[in-house]
Amino acid sequence: MPDTLYYDGQCPLCNREMAKLGQLCDAELQLKDIHNLAEEDGLPDRETLLRTLHLKTASGELLTGIDANVMAWQHTRLGPLWRWLRWPLIRPLADSIYRFWAERRYRRLYPD
In total, how many domains does the chain have? Predict the structure, then answer.
């Protein structure tokens, strides 16, 4: 069973990244648009999925945010270029920037 990355198919930036990732990834990564999902066990609700990137590993672990993105890119030859985002001194800053961007993206695409 492959890892599965859940992304927002109504987000232009997300679609561009998924198109590139889809071209480069191996068969052990599936890309799934949240808007085309049937309910799946072990996943949060749709709104939670839309607020941040989620990746379900083959073993069933659920990764979010940059952890999900970095793990997805490990399925490509470019994977090592993403690992620095998880270095101990970089991680807190990268996570803060991602959370800020993700919240802003969500509010822009899905205003109340």
Answer: 1
